[in-house]
Amino acid sequence: MKKQKRIAVINDFSGFGRCSLTVSLPVISAAGIQCCAIPTAVLSNHTGYEDYFFDDYTDKMKYYYSKWENLGLEFDGIYTGFLGSERQVDIVEDFIKRFSDKHTKIIIDPVMGDDGRTYATFTPGLCRRLGRLTRHSDIMTPNLTEACILTGMPFNDKQKEISSLINICEKLIESGAKNIVITGIEDKNSISNFIYDTQEGYCVYSSEKSGKTRAGTGDVFASIIAADSLRGIKLEDSVKRAADFVSKAIKASDELNIPPQDGVCFELFMRDLIV
Predict the structure, then answer these.
(1) Which of 53, 109, 174, 256 could form a disulfide with 222 if both were Cys (CB 3.0 to 4.6 A apart)?
(2) What tens digit of pLDDT does each residue of 60-97 get?
(3) Cα separation, 270 vs 262, whole angstroms
(4) Which residues on adjacent β-strands are paired with residue 205?
């Protein structure tokens, strides 16, 4: 009997700034997938702004999804984004154990840092704990910084070479990952995504670099990948769709003079995602 696909998304909720759950909910829903949110924290706006309200949801998360367990809910996919503490990683592993089986797609976006540096909230212990999630993933979407952290590789321009990217992905595969997309690899005039598919091999999809670096683009990208994985879309095709969508939204945001911390105006192009 046919049924609508359903995915649980574990991330923070930022009311303003176009990131995390406020991106995933509309993007995944447009793809025809029921998106069920588990907040790790509630923020008035993301931390890229000078002032924000923050309410940590760690102590409430297990109580929250225990009600889903009582309802007998099942999920075709589980997608995790930013996790702010080692306890939250443990909670995510517990959720995966309780709500997944061999048919559940697990998408891990290991949000840890960028430009060769970890974010201020990340300790070595948290980075190691996040590495444990690798073994659960069907698809991982780290940027190059995060991929280097997870594999203990130094971050430098040499890692952008194909041979180094293959080596990094093979190390992640050894840790338990099944398929990897290393995102946002920047050169002078282009941005590339390195796709390592255990069934199809590796390939690179590049697009022209355009516009400013903006908050939330990784969340838009990973949300499209997560939705497409439940729709049975080939990973390479999904990456192309996601990269082209983000590029289009960045260009429009620049034309509309939207501040970079306000993210991308993906709302203008939602029709491209509707099934």
Answers:
(1) 109
(2) 999 999 999 999 999 999 999 999 899 999 999 999 99
(3) 18
(4) 193
